[in-house]
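Appendix B. Chain record.
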Amino acid sequence: MYFLLGVVVLVWSINFVVGKFALRQIPDVLLGTLRFTVAAAMLTPYYVFERRRRKLPLIEKGGIGKLMAVGLVGVGANQLCFLLGLSRTSVAHAAILFALTPMIVLLVSAAAGMERITAKKVGGIVLAIAGVGLLQTGDRAGREATLLGDAFIAAAVATFSIFTVGGKWLRKDFDTLTITTGTYLGSAILLSPVTLLASRNFDFAGVSWSGWAAVFYMALFPSIIAYMIYYHALHYLDATQLSLLAYLQPVMATVFGVTLLDERITPGLLAGGALILAGVFVAERT
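Structure tokens predicted for this chain:
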């Protein structure tokens, strides 16, 4: 299981760089909708085949509604916010802000009555917020990272956190393949008008083979394979064990951003990132 989680960290870390590359050829909103639409197109035939092979009953209407609702937030809104943010900020900023995921999951769980907020957890949250503030004021290298971009990434973190908590809820009634397919297909259907609007007057023929390879990478590896591993892990590991992703991903993604995109590591980036990780650690371990 830890090996599989290592694969998830690697795939998601590379995804920041692949997303940056794809954004050079495809607008952010269109890239976001293409990502989950292509993923849904890949998943659906396999899902139908598996249900027939295992002779499983059809999902009830209420179940379909649950899957589509969680998918709209955790897949549709999440991936749109991610790419809207990535097009306006650096890989390092985006990855470090994603380290806030366990802490936001804690807050969402508390709001749902599944967790209890203690004084020490509040201290960790305050520490992480201070790190975000330092990241915004102390890291201005190259001006690639913008406040608007970071705000979109923060929204992506929030929607993924809701997806994680909602996934625990869905996991009681559905298997991993059903959750993954239902949430992606639901997002593709509900947001199809956005896809059509964003694709108007876009020259698809002008996208290079490497650009399409980036789209298919984002649809297959971080969207389908990594999500299925993550949801599988949710069933067997507790939140503390899964939080390892939050500490490893920003480090690996920043390394990829520096080596492949010539991004710079500044004192403000290091200090803000350290405070955020420290705050997440304190909030999770108390």
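Further analysis of this model is presented in Appendix C.
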